[in-house]
Amino acid sequence: MNSKAKKEIREATTEELSVLLNDLNEKPFRLQQIHEWLWMKWARSFDAMTNLSKNLREELALRYEFRAITVDHTQQSSDGTIKVRFKTFDGHFIEGVLIPTTDRLTACISSQIGCSLTCRFCATGKMKRVRNLFHYEIFDQVAILQEIAEKNFSKRLSNIVYMGMGEPLLNYNNVLRSIDKITSPKGMAMSPSRITVSTSGITKQIRELADEKVKFNLAISLHAADNAKRSKMMPINDTNTLEELIDSLDYFYKKTGTAITYEYILFQDVNDSETDAANLVKLCRRIPSKVNLIEYNTVEDVPYQKAGHESLDKFITYLQKNRVNVRVRRSRGKDIDAACGQLANKNN
Ligand code: SF4
């Protein structure tokens, strides 16, 4: 059988595998064992499935293959953050980051190879979009980061954020399928409340998420609360304006009851004035929400600078005075280009 014609085993349906097991005169409980290997023990090769007979593993390998991602390179920051460059079966690179803090161990994962959007402050936005990641490739990133977490920190992941390379809502089906496997009791069994999908604001898909009544968190890369400024930084705002975005978020909140997180990177003299803060306050009043102010990291060839301490303090004070729930997210892994907006497959 030509290897190109083989299907990824994690794309095989239960019915298909049942028929195969029956044809091979295997006992029905083998189906459960295969499922456990794939989604509960995170096998990424047939050889790993040690409670299946050698013969059955060979039969499976004749018909199916694994297109698992592998670790190409890892780097650890002086603050403990670990950046992993993964290689896909077809030779592309994506990145994931493991971020340890006192109370959390967060995996930041990618949803696409490159990105079709061109947010001006983002290193990934300077790469072309190559393709969407398959659901099992997203799952593999979490599994591998979980294994690294256990090895390095003797802890399990506490949170997963879809905030790496790519726009998750432009790879809607694979992102949802991966979350289904991560949260299923017959998968990684992680609580959806520990998962955050971060989007630049694709309103059509935000409404779809609402209709599906998803249980995970939604974060919006906002960065400006007026259309002219936001469009300059994020061209997606031309076709998904703030009004449309807020309408879709209102719909999301009404359907799911989950408050929205706004991510706001404060750039010097760009979006850090009192007027900017006032616009943000107004926007926050529309739907239950909180704001994460994110510290920026310089990206080559990007005209934006991180805001200074003084403007950061003023901005926070203004938001707090107006009863906005705000937190500052200090950047992690700056020295290894693992911080927000820095993921770009640099060869270091
Ligand atoms: S910020 Fe996100 S959506 Fe925007 S270009 Fe970067 S990866 Fe794409």
- Spatial order of the strands in the main sheet? 3-4-5-6-9-10-11-12-13-14
SS class: alpha/beta
- State the fourth-level CATH superfamily of the largest domain: Aldolase class I
Ligand inventory reads: iron/sulfur cluster
What kind of sheet is the major sheet?
A: 10 strands, mixed
Averaged pLDDT: 93
Strand content: 15-25%
- How many domains in all? 2
Walk me through this protein's architecture.
It is a single chain. With 348 residues, this protein is α/β, with parallel strands linked by helices. It has 2 domains: 63 residues, DNA polymerase, domain 1; 267 residues, Alpha-Beta Barrel (TIM Barrel). The chain contains 11 helices and 14 strands. The protein has a 10-stranded mixed sheet, with helices on one face. α4 crosses α5 and α6 runs parallel beside α9. It is elongated, with a radius of gyration of 22 Å. The site of iron/sulfur cluster has 12 residues, from loops.
